[in-house]
Amino acid sequence: QVQLAESGGGSVQPGGTLRLSCIVSGITFTNYLMAWYRQAPGKERELVATISRGGRPNYANSLEGRFTISRDNAKNTVSLQIDRLKPEDTAVYYCKADHVGVGSLFYWGQGTQVTVAS
User: Fold this and answer.
1) Which pLDDT value is given to residue 63?
2) N or C: which end of the chain has fewer CB within 10 A?
3) CB atoms within 10 A of CB 13
4) Among positive and negative, which fits the CA dihedral 19, 32, 49, 74?
5) Residue 76 burial (10 A CB sphere; 0-12, 13-18, 19+)
6) CA–CA gap between residue 22 and residue 94 (Å, rounded)
7) How many other C-beta atoms lie within 10 A of the C-beta of residue 86?
8) What is the biggest distance separating any 2 CA atoms in the chain, rounded to whole angstroms?
9) Alpha carbon 95 to chain centroid, angstroms
10) Is 62 helix (H, G, I), strand (E, B) or coil?
């Protein structure tokens, strides 16, 4: 069974930091591009960042600076650190795995809630 299990979300004050994790099982992790998306209330789901199989990160232009994506291929884990959190970061954050070479093969996690409020 393929599973992407996100964790690390919660409620935090503006200016704080959160580190989200996604533990992947049931697939060959090194064959997949990994990504983080988020969906805020009333908005479309948007891409936050991707990271290649070899660990090369890419970020959405509008989000450059406060976000750091990383992966640990030995632990089948991808992480997203969010620094200097803002209220507009409030969203459900989703982990996604995309198979490199097989476009129809992808998986989503269930999401983890991030709430930024004072």
Assistant:
1) 81
2) N
3) 10
4) positive
5) buried
6) 9
7) 12
8) 44
9) 4
10) helix
pLDDT at 64 over 80: no
Taking residues 83-103, what's their average pLDDT?
96
Say if residues 109 and 96 touch (Cβ distance below 8 Å). Answer: yes
C-alpha dihedral sign at 18, 24, 30, 31? negative
Query: Token pair of 25, please?
Result: 């099982």
> Which residue shows structure tokens 């209220």?
87
pLDDT, averaged across the chain: 96
Strands 3-7 and 57-59: unpaired
CA distances from 118 to 8, 28, 87 (A): 19, 41, 9
- The residue among 65, 117, 110 whose CA lies nearest residue 92 is 110
